[in-house]
Amino acid sequence: MNPAVLLARGEALLRHADVAAAQSFFRVAAEQGSAAGAMALAASFDPIALKEAGIRGARANSGEALAWYRRAAELGEASAEARHQRLIDHLRRAAAGGDPAAREALDEQR
Fold this sequence. Notes:
Serine Threonine Protein Phosphatase 5, Tetratricopeptide repeat, 75% helix, mainly alpha
């Protein structure tokens, strides 16, 4: 299926807060080599992006977000590195405040 179609379907699902279903469409687009698909998938795991989108109840996964931001950068997405760094900075602040999940996500990056 065309990555643009996959992204459109994923975005429609995300607007209805069906994050898991949206991720399945984004993942297929990303696996087909779509930088936009990788970015959308990363954002669907990113706690900052989810909060900014007003999506509540979705389970964030910073490790997955970081991995997909790296993949998006490899695929040529210009904004991926900045999003990756923004999440790293967020995790560092949270880890410094004693958040064990943030520390674990950072440790996975080494």
